Amino acid sequence: MSIDELEAEALKLDPQARARLAGRLMDSLEQLSPDENARVWSSEAARRAAALDHGDLTSRPAVDVFRDARTRL
Length: 73
Prior knowledge:
This protein is mainly alpha-helical and 73 residues long. Helix content is 77%, strand content 0%.
């Protein structure tokens, strides 16, 4: 099963199950060594930068994101 197929299946779960899965996945990342952690996040940053460059991802100024977050609190 590809990561895209796995993601699609995970998104079909009810919110409680998705939250549980997300928590377990996040917990698994905390067990990485510092080098593994740096490698994973570096790869993710490169993936996001490429997606942004290709127009597959949009961005917003941080000031807008933080303003909206404060509004929601």
